Amino acid sequence: MSRTVALGVWLALFAMGKPSVVHARAKAPQRSAWRRPSVRAQVPVARSAVWPRKEVLDVAMRVYRCGRAAGVFDGPLLTVIDYALPSTERRLWVIDVPRRRVLFHELVAHGEGSGDNYAVDFSNEPGSRQSSLGVFRTEDVYRGSNGYSLRLSGLEPGVNDLAMERRIVMHGADYVSERAVSALGRLGRSWGCPALSKRVHRRLIERIKGGSAVIAYYPDQRWLRQSRFVQCTLVRVARR
Predict the structure, then answer these.
(1) Kind of pairing, strands 134-144 and 92-96?
(2) 238 pLDDT exceeds 70?
């Protein structure tokens, strides 16, 4: 075979083999798509994109902005409880207001004196075992008979200002779970505390402790008309 013919055969073989090399390189990135995601990638920023009902969110944001303007609340977080919803629904939200993000969306119990699946009665009275409406401020944490718990200051006279005396706190409870709903047709009930699932209560409390806003909503027209936060008379008083 002449040198010219041999060179031609070699070039033909090279040309035939080249596509297989290119094809192998093109497939390489596809293999990385099957790699297990990192732990960081598996941790969601927010558990749910579901927000409170519009009328509830409107009131809650009015309360939050008023309290921030008056210097009552610290930090960017707002906790909303919608007691107009049944206990079988997730009716507690923790919202990062500046970032417009829902950080938690969870089940929450009401007091046994307030009703069964639906809360219909509310009180500020010691011994009533009812939930209280209105605006609260989160305070410090402690470990008590219900484990890791968060103290709440009630900020509305006659509505919830005896929360400390009544020991109305956020804590975890076994009766706040999907299992309880399956067994009872509702959540178990507290003695007035907004009790949370033990699956999440510690993480949630750690996020909102130390001066953030909590609003326990119910469409009680008297409260909505008279609340210093809903009507925002706090700011007008502070500016006099």
Answers:
(1) unpaired
(2) no
For residues 121-149, b (16+ Cβ closer than 10 Å) or e, as one string?
Answer: ebbbeeebbbbbbbbbbbbebeeeebebb
Give me the torsion for CA of 169, 67, 209, 89, rounded to 10°. Answer: 60
User: Residue 202 is which amino acid?
Assistant: R
Contact between residue 154 and residue 213 where contact means Cβ atoms under 8 Å apart = no
Q: What is d(CA 121, CA 125) in angstroms, rounded to the nearest whole number?
A: 12
Token pair belonging to 105: 């969306």
pLDDT tops 90 at residue 186: yes
* Residue among 152, 159, 166 at smallest CA distance from 132: 159
pLDDT for residue 76: 97
For each of the domains in the chain, give its residue range(s) and CATH number, in order of start.
3-41 (no CATH), 46-238 (2.40.440.10)
Best CA proximity match to 108, nearest among 182, 209, 210, 181 = 181
Q: What is the pLDDT of residues 28-37, one digit of tens each?
A: 333 333 232 3
The pTM (predicted TM-score) of the whole model is 0.78
Task: Tell me phi and psi for residue 77, to 5 degrees.
Answer: -100, 145
List, in order, residues 6 or more apart from 50 with CB less than 8 Å away: 90, 102, 105
pLDDT for 87-130, tens place per residue?
999 999 999 999 999 999 999 999 999 999 999 999 999 999 99
Between CA 68 and CA 57 the distance in angstroms is 16
Distance CA 221, CA 210 (A): 30
Phi, psi of 144 (to 5 degrees): -125, -155
